[in-house]
Amino acid sequence: xxxxxxxxxxxxxxxxxxxxxxxxxxxxxxxxxxxxxxxxxxxxxxxxxxxxxxxxxxxxxxxxxxxxxxxxxxxxxxx
Length: 79
Fold this sequence. Notes:
There is one protein chain. By secondary structure, the chain is mainly α. 52% of the residues lie in helices and 0% in strands. The chain is built from five helices and no strands. It has helices at 3-12, 17-24, 28-35, 42-52, 56-59. α2 (17-24) crosses α3. The longest helix is centred in the middle third of the chain and has 11 residues, at 42-52.
């Protein structure tokens, strides 16, 4: 899910990311980083899963590695 959708899901359940931070005794920025996928915290993520009712793999789907693209080299050609 997009981070804004996660925040909206939290709000729809009657709380806010800031309230979760206060409840878990962590900084608001840490909750934001977890929501945005920039940091990992099993404790924060599991609380977000509990509050929203969405499974973790729906909130933060696994990232698929982009294919490595390489330019084809031409043998014997010089500039």
